[in-house]
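Show me a record, fold above all:
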Amino acid sequence: MGKFRKLGRHAAHRVSMLRTMVSQLVKHERIETTVAKAKEVRRKADQMVQLGKDGTLDAARRASAFVRGDDVVHKLFTELAYRYKDRAGGYTRLLRTRIRIGDAAPMAYIEQCNVRSKAMS
């Protein structure tokens, strides 16, 4: 079993938070959060994009069991699967932004990478 960050939450809260954050990342394509949370969200978001690329019924069921909302599942299996069809991994990127005032937590944007087409290069 792989290692993961506990993020100061019990298991049910942590899974619920990650499900919501991955869903919001897919929906809005960019969210701001702490660096530690962003690194965990990146792992799950890349897994969801990989399921979208698989395109099977089993993959759709597994993705819909994790992300929240049918619109998010649809975006994974249509728009994002097409965008990353020629890419082997690294569907998200993490951009460190600032130190949060209240608790000095390092903040970062996590966003879906835009893939340049070969015609644009």
Remarks:
- The chain has one domain: 11-112.
- Residues 11-112 form a domain with the 50s Ribosomal Protein L17; Chain: A, fold (CATH 3.90.1030.10).
- DSSP finds four helices and three strands in the chain.
- The CA atoms of residues 29 and 46 lie 13 Å apart.
